[in-house]
Specification:
By secondary structure, the chain is of the alpha+beta class. It contains 14 helices and 5 strands. The chain has 3 domains: about 100 residues, Tetrapyrrole methylase, C-terminal domain (Methyltransferase, Cobalt-precorrin-4 Transmethylase, Domain 2); about 90 residues, Orthogonal Bundle (Helix Hairpins); about 80 residues, MazG-like (Helix Hairpins), CATH 1.10.287. About 55% of the residues lie in helices and about 5% in strands. It has a 5-stranded mixed beta sheet with strand order 1-2-5-3-4. The termini are far apart.
Length: about 325
Amino acid sequence: SFLEPVLTHLRLDPLDRGLQVFDAMEIGAQHHPPLDPDRPVLVAQLYGRQLASDVKLTLLNLYPAEHPLTLIQGAGTLGEKGWSVPLFELDRDSNLNDLTTLYVPPLSRPSGMAALQEVVARLRAPDGCPWDREQTHATLRRYLLEETYEVLAAIDADDRDKLCEELGDLLLQVLLHSQIAVESGEFSSADVAAGLIAKLIRRHPHVFGDLDVADASEVLQNWEQLKAKERGEKDKIKGQFDGVPVALPALLRAQEVQDRAARLGVDGSSQVELDRRIGEALRQASATTDPERREDAIGEALFALVRLTRMLNVEAESALRQATARYVAEFPADP
């Protein structure tokens, strides 16, 4: 076996941190490596530059470009040699052959999902954090919403460092809910992942199957048809909005309802018609003295305005959020 001489060359104990061993062809065929970045990896039979390029592109989905690697060639033979390269240079060596093995060391700090789940489980353990231990699905609702809006704020600010941080905070909420579910025997994070994987594959037959689609619009229409079929409500319009959360902010929910209606092919209003409806609703709101009729008219105007933003390829929620931010920024300190 090539393992013993390679491990001897690296002075590596395979049991120390849980060695992972893969064939280069298997890694190169993936889009994301099936690896735990907190554990060492050996990639065997890295026999050429094209394969090394495929492996490099896969590893770059998990490791930084500068991550130090070690190549071992001819381990256990008289011609044994080893040399180091950063990940981004992996495919620049023309001397790779069937006896070349790649060593990928762990990242410098805990970074894998398993490590993160261990931290969350430790927080919820009997000797963990009192605050984390007393949380439930219900008590975490506000934090899930807050972290979601923090992510949106980072996106609006075009702050990539902040976005990375806030996505971590949002991921924490997902893992906390999963850990709570494990403890109560409801489901596990593996169940969450398995359900999502199956759903994504099932609803993307144009990627994982043999369905042909013309463009993104056709993808969305097919997505809605598949969802309807899964619900056992194929070809029915009634109930198609059941999956749109009632708890969404009103503007966001209006846009989601209209997006879904458009994907179902039942939203054929023209821009001229929408302009007319908005103007008419605003005139009715101004003319009436009845509070309920005024509220209805304003609601109709807002709903039609959301439909107009869809037609103009503008996200209503984002547009309003940015307009509010501009107003706050321009508001005088001493009005």
